[in-house]
Amino acid sequence: MQKLIIANWKSNKSPAQAGAWAQEVAALGGQEISTGVTPIVALAFTLLPAVSESLQKIGWSLATQDLSPFAAGSYTGAVSAINLQGLNVRYAILGHSERRRYFQETSAMVAQKVDQALQAGLTPVVCVDEKTVAEQARVLGADVTGQCIVAYEPSESIGTGNNAPVGKVKEFREEVMRLFGAVPFIYGGSVNESNAAEYLLVADGVLVGEASLDAKQFIALLHSARGNSQAAV
Ligand code: PGA
């Protein structure tokens, strides 16, 4: 499979900055790059209209960083799958450690969101670490685990520059395969253009926070990822 390179902007960027980033990646050859890897941009809901069309034109997909645990209805403040229709969203990052930590998200809530994503035809990217992986797999249940992309995000590596040793990622992958089945497995935590390629030898993709905010840096990362996109896992 093509390597999944997911930019996670978190709560960064104004709509104007998001639009400028999309223009810049297109001008830097974003379309040509996407023949070797699958670039996906996960951004705040309000930024979707600013980039949806231009990124679709170059063949990139969009992801949300969260999703309502409920379908459309009386859930003030929540963004349901139907609210996203027509915006080129194909993936939803769910259960990121920052959501679990700052918004008290539990594995049960994540499972509800995964269910909503699947019903809407969105692919859930479920984030786990050593502490949550077994519980999350159990709560999702065997029918659902196999439909997810699993992201290993060790919290000590997120935003710290302290990226995980590749051997540890490889080991964690084995645990994910045991608990979730043969699902796509990606790594996130201080990934940048200098270290992305080594993770792609043991993972099907990377989730990139800080190093995705600058268009040039993200394009450089895609180039380095492409160099290894054919490598065996
Ligand atoms: P980082 O974030 O690349 O800034 O460490 C990764 C993530 O949280 O997805």
Your description of this structure?
The protein is an alpha/beta fold and 233 residues long. It is 39% helix and 17% strand. It has an 8-stranded parallel β-barrel, surrounded by 4 helices. Helix 1 packs parallel to helix 3. The N and C termini lie close together (10 Å). The C terminus is likely disordered.
Radius of gyration: 16 Å
Q: What is the count of β-strands?
A: 8
Largest sheet: 8 strands, parallel, barrel
Bound ligand species: 2-phosphoglycolic acid
Beta-strand proportion: 15-25%
SSE arrangement, N to C: EHHEHEEHHEHHEHEHEH
Salient structural properties:
binds 2-phosphoglycolic acid, 233 residues, disordered C terminus, alpha/beta, 39% helix
Question: Which helices and strands occur, and which strands form pairs?
Answer:
Blueprint: E1 3-8, H1 15-27, H2 30-33, E2 37-42, H3 48-57, E3 61-64, E4 89-94, H4 97-102, H5 107-119, E5 123-128, H6 133-140, H7 142-145, E6 149-152, H8 166-180, E7 185-188, H9 196-199, E8 205-208, H10 215-227
Parallel strand pairs: 1-2, 1-8, 2-3, 3-4, 4-5, 5-6, 6-7, 7-8
Bound molecules: 2-phosphoglycolic acid (PGA).
